[in-house]
Amino acid sequence: MSDVVERIKALPLAQQALLLQQLKQQTIQTPSLRAKDWVIRLQPQSHPRLRLFCFAYAGGGASLFRLWPHGLPDDVEICAVQLPGRENRLGETAYNRLPTLIHDLSAALMPLLDRPFACFGHSMGALISFEFTRYLRKTTPYQPIALYLAAFRAPQLPSPNIKIYHLPTEVFKVVLEAEGIPLEILRNDELMRGLLPTLRADLELCDTYNYHAEPPLSCPLRIFGGQDDIRVRPTDLDGWILHTQASYQQTIVPGNHFFVHSAHDHLLALIAQDLPMA
Length: 278
What we know:
The protein is of the alpha/beta class. The chain has a single domain (2-277), classed as Rossmann fold (3-Layer(aba) Sandwich). 38% of the residues lie in helices and 14% in strands. The protein has eleven helices and seven strands. The chain has helices spanning 2-10, 13-24, 35-38, 98-109, 124-139, 169-178, 183-186, 189-207, 234-237, 259-262, 264-274, and strands spanning 39-42, 50-55, 76-81, 117-122, 147-150, 221-226, 248-253. Strand 6 (221-226), helix 9 (234-237) and strand 7 form a beta-alpha-beta unit. Helix 2 packs across helix 8. The longest helix has 19 residues, at 189-207.
């Protein structure tokens, strides 16, 4: 959520007021299943060598990846996945159960799987990428040529986190403050009224995840962790090796849980170097 918060803080007052107005007018809609609503194709290409589907962390949106085309090869099309309930999809209800999300996500992305593709996911996005790949294996002939998964424990490990998605709003805000969300955002009742449902849904989606054992994937796994991440330690990542029968690589980069920001250039350089070999 930190990327969203920083973008809100950077908005001029007039644009903040416009955002508040949009949140007030928010209506619950059934999520669209059109690819153009689920994916923002940054610098779209007619015949890319490869599509990289990118999934953000809880509370985050497709804008997290807005600079990625500048750090990856020109023939790689960045497809930033925009889940319901955020940014330009504020009017749609966010998913709070992973199986339903994966089912609808797969249907929406199917038209874009006509080219070789890979997936990147950070935190919640890593979990979505992993289960999306396993669902495709069971239901389609498509598989990514590689998975790049960051800041999420091996899925077979139990979550060490206390469930907070159901907490009363004021208690929930205390937890968010401890996570680093600025007070000026937390004290803006109108803004929080629009943002909290999506964040609660994302956390519920992760906290209610049930892992089911399946054979390892056939694609390579590239796993990334933050050197100073207190949520996901390097030992929490080791178990990912069980989920591929292809090549495996685990890399620890500088930064905390949100190293996708602080180690942005380093992370993209590692992915760019690996993609031709995927």
